[in-house]
Amino acid sequence: MNTSEITNIISDDCRPFEAIWNARNGISDTIFYSNIVINGILAIPTFVSNLILIIAIWSCNSMRTPSNIIICSLACSDIGVGLLAQPLAVAKTVIEAKASSSFDSFCSIHKRSRVSSVYFCVVSFVCFTAVSLDKYLMVLLHLRYHELVTTRRVIMFLLIVWALAALCILFELCCSSVITMVLFIGAIVCFIVTLTSYVWVYRTVRRHQKAIHDQLHAVATESRDKSLYMTRVRKNTMSMILVYVWFVICYLPFVVVTVVGAVWSGNESAIQSALLCTGTVIFLNSFVNPFLFYWRIKDFRVSMHIIDEEVKFVSVKTAPYVPVIPRPSSSDDKNITVFHRALQANSIC
Question: Domain G-protein coupled receptors family 1 profile: where (predicted)?
């Protein structure tokens, strides 16, 4: 393969981005630099907050449940956003904003930014769907849930999800339009499955709680245990519904703008400006997720408190021992000499 053929292949790969490049002149500097600043500031906190969430899960044996393993996978995808997707998005936007930038450099960084963003978004969509199905199975199977839904099986499922997402990205580099349509249909399916699962779980739990309340006086102990279980499932489900609503709120504007841009051949600069801003909102979702988990789920708060106490204990344990030496009175010359020798021996002064 000669040089001209390689150049043609590269130019073919970059051709879909020509419209974005040409529309950059119509985007205001305020939009460019505000997105650069927001993504640049939030990248590190996004990485750190999600890393702390993963540590909170893995530091306590009782926290390593199938449900929390899925949340851990979601946090891993959010870490990828803070570690790769946001820095690449900042670099892409900087190149777009600079008038002296070349199209080749923009194409190169844009492809990397697109691949990383799409990859972690696909994983997030599937993880949220898996969380809803986990709640569905928790209510449906009840006592058999822990027998069938094990940590090992969930980890294997999540590894397959990450691998399939990577495979989709590889195909996306070859046939972008086909994979984009497949991912769009897959996102709709995930949304429908998630919504259906949560509605079913919520209605079923409410029906069970009502039935248990009616039977409470007949079979006190058994009914009370089942009522507590259903109450715990209901609270956990409501917390995850809140997180999912925030997820939809962040993604919906980008989806709407993408659909409008596909069917409307109007002001391309306005479309690209909207895509730039709504893409930043998607990244904001990864930053807020850990705080929603800390706020809504008590187990995470307890785990973080335990970690904080352990860190304080280790800090105190590893601190150098400093003996408390009574300061003698100025009239006692002998005690003053002993006092100064003790200070020198323990390197206090």
Answer: 49-293
The tokens for 137 are 């199975």
What DSSP line would sit under 151-163, residue for residue? HHHHHHHHHHHHH
Q: Which pairs from 99-108 meet CB under 8 Å and 24+ separation?
A: 103/14, 103/18, 103/21, 104/10, 104/14, 106/17, 106/21, 107/10, 107/13, 107/14, 107/17, 107/21
Amino acid in position 163: A
Domain residue ranges of the chain, discontinuous segments joined by +: 15-316
Q: At residue 136, what are phi and psi to the nearest 5 degrees? A: -60, -50
Residue 103 and residue 22 in contact, taking contact as beta carbons nearer than 8 Å: no
Burial of 69 (0-12, 13-18, 19+ CB in 10 A): buried
Kindly give the interhelix angle for 86-97 and 29-58, rounded to the nearest 10 degrees: 170
Which residue blocks in the chain are alpha helix, DSSP H? Answer: 3-14, 18-23, 29-58, 66-80, 86-97, 103-141, 145-148, 151-174, 176-215, 220-263, 268-296, 298-318, 333-345
Distance CA(174)–CA(167), nearest Å, equals 11
> Cα(153)–Cα(138) distance, rounded to whole angstroms?
15
Q: Which CATH architecture has domain 15-316?
A: Up-down Bundle (1.20)
Can you read off the two tokens belonging to residue 333? 């010359």
Residues 98 and 114: their CA atoms lie apart, in Å, by 20
pLDDT along the chain (349 residues), means of 10: 44 71 83 94 95 89 90 96 95 86 86 92 94 91 87 95 91 73 88 92 80 59 61 81 92 91 81 92 94 86 74 59 50 48 44
Question: What is the length of the chain?
Answer: 349
